[in-house]
Amino acid sequence: MAKLIYTAITSLDGYIADETGNFDWSAPDEEVHAFINELERGVGTYLYGRQLYEVMRFWESPGPVDDQSRVEAEYAAIWQAAEKIVFSRTLLDISTAHTTLEREFDSERIRRLKDASASDLGIGGATLAGKALKAGLVDEVNLFLSPVVVGGGTRSLPAGFRNELSLVNERRFSNGVVYLRYLVVRDEPSGPAGS
């Protein structure tokens, strides 16, 4: 069974965008971007909310090759090759290849997709990822903590959600970003009383 992985670049105080929607502080430098590329190679399908999809579709045709760094061109190829499912009630159409539009988030459909997938799935967009976390669908959380405090905005993790996580990897980058990889701890079903 494939894993569903939530990856977010977040401020130190836990926001993916500030109160005005600004997230320019989260742009990865070359070192962080190369590391993200390695993480993303195993993702065969991305699940996006509308807002993140609208940001990420930049990678469909990110501009002339002369303007791209090697890691940006590499990421564009990774992103273009993957399947994308966008969950939105308001988006009228899609503008990228390998992309389908879903009007409703159906947790059972995502479970079946995980069961049938030969490669991992990535989920992005705080609202969509929050639904998946609350539904018990997310297997792994990758956070890139940026050395900035923004004081409010869009939370990277949902309010009112509680779950144990197990830290399995960490890395510090020269620009002060810290990567944390957590596995979501699942409660084991208890057996009959007395067993």
Description:
- The protein is an alpha/beta fold.
- It has one domain: Dihydrofolate Reductase, subunit A (3-Layer(aba) Sandwich).
- It contains 5 helices and 10 strands; from the N terminus they run E-E-H-E-H-H-E-E-H-E-H-E-E-E-E.
- Strands 5-4-3-6-1-7-10-9 form an 8-stranded mixed beta sheet, with helices on both faces. A two-stranded antiparallel sheet has the order 2-8.
- A hairpin with a 5-residue loop joins strand 9 and strand 10.
- The radius of gyration is 17 Å and the shape is globular.
- The model has no long low-confidence stretch (mean pLDDT 93).
CATH topology: Dihydrofolate Reductase, subunit A
Question: What's the number of extended β-strand segments?
Answer: 10
Q: Which class best fits the helix and strand makeup?
A: alpha/beta
Question: CATH superfamily name?
Answer: Dihydrofolate Reductase, subunit A
Q: Spans of 5+ residues with little confidence (pLDDT < 50)?
A: none
Intertermini distance: 29 Å
Averaging pLDDT over every residue, what do you get? 93
Topology order in helix (H) and strand (E) letters: EEHEHHEEHEHEEEE
Strand content: 25-35%
The total domain count is 1
Rough shape? globular
Looking across the biggest beta sheet, what order are the strands in? Answer: 5-4-3-6-1-7-10-9
The first-level CATH class name: Alpha Beta
What's the main sheet like? 8 strands, mixed
Oligomer: single chain
Which bin fits the share of residues in helices?
A: 25-40%
CATH architectural grouping: 3-Layer(aba) Sandwich
The Cα radius of gyration reads 17 Å
Q: How many distinct helices?
A: 5
